[in-house]
Amino acid sequence: MQAVVRVLLGLLVAIGGLANISCTQVSSPTVSPHTQAVRRQWPVAPEMRGVWLATVSNLDWPSRPGLAVAVQQREFRDLLNQVQILHLNTVVVQVRPMGDAFYPSHDMPWSQYLMGQQGQSPGYDPLAFMITEAHQRGLSFHAWFNPYRVSQHGNIAALAANNPARLHPDWIVHYGGALYYNPGIPEVRAAIINSIMEVVQHYAVDAVQFDDYFYPYPVAGLAFPDAATYRRYGAGHFASLADWRRVNVNQLIHEVFLRIKQVRPGVQFGISPFGVWRNQSTDATGSHTRAGVTDYDILYADTRTWIRRHWIDYIVPQLYWHIGFAPADYQTLLAWWAHEVAGYHVRLYIGQAAYTFGRNSPTSSPPAELLKQLALNRRYPQIQGSIFFRLKNLLRLAPELKEQLAHYF
After folding, report:
1. Cα-flanking dihedrals φ and ψ of residue 404, to 5°?
2. To 10 degrees, what angle do helices 399-408 and 369-377 make?
3. pLDDT by residue (tens digit) across 95-147?
């Protein structure tokens, strides 16, 4: 979840052209009887007061790779203590940031962000440790996965020998100098689901969460190279490449949801998409925004279907813009998402960008904006809390603002 990249892409509104792709809405199967049965078991949830803890590039934890076990663990405990001081109740921890793992996996190599080299064991089980520490403090633990990202470089040979991407190079797409799993290959989908279920089956996580990385954010002038995969799997069944891409993602979402509920019905499945589904200029039911990137048309994330088919337990749109920001106004999007979930049994939390408050940039906000946004959230009964991106940015807020935030909660 590289927030700066997302914001810059969202600002492409001035350039125009990315969001105005005409696509046919994809029809999806109705909600299954099993899914309906699972829904009836839901308890009433408290207000979400969560924070994302990013491990990619050592953004939040560990502070750098190669630390001794005791130092890694002390850093994590210190972070959780700060979470408690802020009166938060949930940590969303990136356990598979880049085609790797923060736990001993049968399928995925150890993360390079632990010891500095992909595949090198840190000598303990970080995921088991983190879950224990969170639960001892009364914090919920949501395991955050990036399903399709493989690496920020394009060199397959530099991956660990047991990395599925290295073992199956035909599963991989090179795009914009990075490596991604090809969402259109059925074997890729099966491998991703199995790797997620490995965690659900063996760890006491409270939820599984995906963020906004589905098909990658576009690189100017560069098409995502999956035409051959489309000809093989999609051309005979779908009217357009875009429809096929959305169905590829939909199948992953639906199957992950069903597998989780079959094994551990109490584990939630949530997704945190980019904050704009479609612009009203493209779809009359979209938001009154001018975003250059949208979920449906650019990232092929069909969030409306996920909500209406009850394939997710919660959704956290990333509303990383301030009140009054003309291309993507926070208040406008807040109302749109509240309406979008109304009548559906999907919890709505708001993703809020701690890094914007008090910064000097076109998308930044004065410190008081944070409490204004939270007050706006509570006007809508559909909104059941917030998750902040990300922990160290939250901890860098001015002391008086952190104190106000803790009192607010």
Report:
1. -60, -40
2. 10
3. 999 999 999 999 999 999 999 999 999 999 999 999 999 999 999 999 999 99
CA-nearest of 223, 257, 229 to 245 is 229
10 Å CB burial of residue 41 (0-12, 13-18, 19+) is exposed
Residue with tokens 């792709």: 21
Beta bridge partners of 318: 274, 351
224-233 in b/e form (b: 16+ CB < 10 A) is bebeebbeeb
Q: Which amino acid is at 205?
A: V
Residue 279 sits at the vertex; the CA angle it makes with 318 and 339, to the nearest 5 degrees, is: 65
Biggest CA–CA distance in the chain, Å, is: 60
Model confidence pLDDT, tens digit, residues 214-249: 999 999 999 999 999 999 999 999 999 999 999 999
pTM of the predicted protein model: 0.90
What 3 state SS string does 92-105 have? EEEEECCCCECCCC
Angle ∠(104,105,111) on CA atoms, nearest 5: 70
Strand 314-315 with 347-353, pairing: parallel
